[in-house]
Amino acid sequence: MASDSLAGGVESAYTRIGAAPAIKAVVDRFYEYLVADEELARYFRPLDAGAFAALKRHQVAMLSQVLGGPRQYAGRDLAEAHGPLHVTGRDYRRVAHLLVGTLWEFNVPEQIIFEVTEVLAGLRETIAPPVEAAAGHRS
């Protein structure tokens, strides 16, 4: 899942932004934003503390991998994990904006943020498929 441009070069994006401690801090802050958002909080309310902590660990592992760090993500396939949630395109964009905003807040270099944005754009239909695709219709 790691982007070649994110993982490439002498020093990975993961290393350049501060490795595991930085990714954990970004994810912690990102999830503060998610649960504080009135429209997105509904996705997280059903989770108990253990499930919420596991979700954050998965996010750290996935973001680390995307940024060229260790390949430790062992979660479910993204479509399988998000399918039952029926994530809307609007909610997906909202989550993506919050993640990008969090990266800006942590002074992540602009080029890395742009590359993360490209990865997010590529995942949009996997996580929040168009209604027609979700219903099995083809246009």
Helical proportion, percent range: 55-70%
Main beta sheet strand tally, sense and closure: none
- So what's the overall shape? globular
Which parts are unreliable, with pLDDT below 50 for 5 consecutive residues or more? 1-5
Distance between the termini: 28 Å
Rg calculated over all Cα atoms: 15 Å
Oligomer: single chain
Please report the total strand number as a whole number: 0
Indicate the structural class.
Answer: mainly alpha
> Could you tell me the mean pLDDT?
87
| Helical run tally | 8
Q: What is the H/E order?
A: HHHHHHHH
Strand content: under 5%
Description:
- The chain has helices at 4-7, 13-16, 19-36, 49-66, 78-82, 89-105, 110-127, 131-134.
- Residues 1-5 have low confidence and may be disordered.
- It contains eight helices and no strands.
- The chain is globular.
- By secondary structure, it is mostly helical.
